[in-house]
Write a structure and sequence with these properties.
Blueprint (H helix, E strand, L loop, with lengths): L2 E10 L2 E11 L4 E5 L6 H9 L6 E6 L2 E2 L10 E4 L11 H10 L9 H14 L15 H14 L4 E5 L7 H18 L2 E6 L2 H7 L2 E6 L2 E6 L1 H6 L4 H6 L4 E8 L2 E4 L2 E4 L8 E7 L5 E3 L8 E10 L3 E8 L7 E6 L10 E13 L2 E2 L3 E3 L4
Parallel strand pairs: 3-8, 3-9, 6-7, 7-8
Antiparallel strand pairs: 1-2, 1-4, 4-5, 9-10, 11-12, 11-14, 12-13, 14-19, 15-19, 16-17, 16-19, 17-18, 19-20, 19-21
Helix pairs in contact: 2-3, 2-4, 3-4
Amino acid sequence: MSIEINGINKFFGRTKVLNDISLDIASGEMVALLGPSGSGKTTLLRIIAGLESQSGGKLGFHGTDVSHVHARDRRVGFVFQHYALFRHMTVFDNIAFGLSVLPRRERPNAAAIKQKVTQLLEMVQLSHLASRYPSQLSGGQKQRVALARALAVEPQILLLDEPFGALDAQVRKELRRWLRQLHEELKFTSVFVTHDQEEAMEVADRIVVMSQGNIEQVGSPEEIVREPASRFVLEFMGEVNRLSGEIRGSQLFVGAHQWPLSFQPMHQGSVDLFLRPWEMEVGTESSDRCPLPVQVLEVSPRGHFWQMTVQPIGWHQEPISVVLPDGNEPPVRGGRYYVGSLNARLYAGDQLLQPVALAKSA
């Protein structure tokens, strides 16, 4: 079931919280709405569910306008962060609830409900807990029950509002993998809200990055990280080093170091340079490619590489993060290295300038 969002906006009083949002979600696609608090992602999800009404624009499911269709008639499953399970019901009865309250003409008989719930319990790997109550379950088990309950009525679309936000880190990772596998098996259309970049990257087919009621970028996880459409996306998506620089004439200055620019800059004055840790080249000796000295503050082994927090010496005040590949001598605190890059992103405010090389030769 595809979703078509066309020019949707939303006001709470005089405050506009969604600004003419347009987005097409293909049938069977899993899409993450990602952004900080106040970005509008949960409001958009609730509009899709029918729990909020838009102030303008249209919402369609597979080409049919559902803008004014009641939530109960949209055949949408909704999973909340805090489970919303019935405490007085067993796991089995919680999952069966949606089926048991269907209109009489649509309601399966008792045998069919039992068969359906048994299948769902097997699917979420909780068959052995069917007779337990929510108070006897772990957080991860409760969330699986909530998901099975949402799937019981065979929704056209599954919506999840920060489904793993209340769980500890290890359980979140396990459930993310499990949800992705489940989606591959059932191919339901799904939209989930999260502020966790790692969660969005791991689970979603596409990510919708939102900020202040606007869509900043839509793309695959790889596109979002490697080709950010704005400074906001660049800074929001994962770890990034921000360096202060200055353009004077056709030269870029970073501390006491300077490089000629390969373009004629329209902007003069302060600029910011952005580099992911893995985009910085690291050497043990000063060279044309690695001219900037740093001192190691912290070392974190990560298997096939070392993540290092280093203090620039004489060219930047704040520590930065770099990656040293395996095959080098293990780094130690206090050690000196040299860094550079052939492709730093250069911004004057929110305006992207041409990429620059922090190296003497490219």
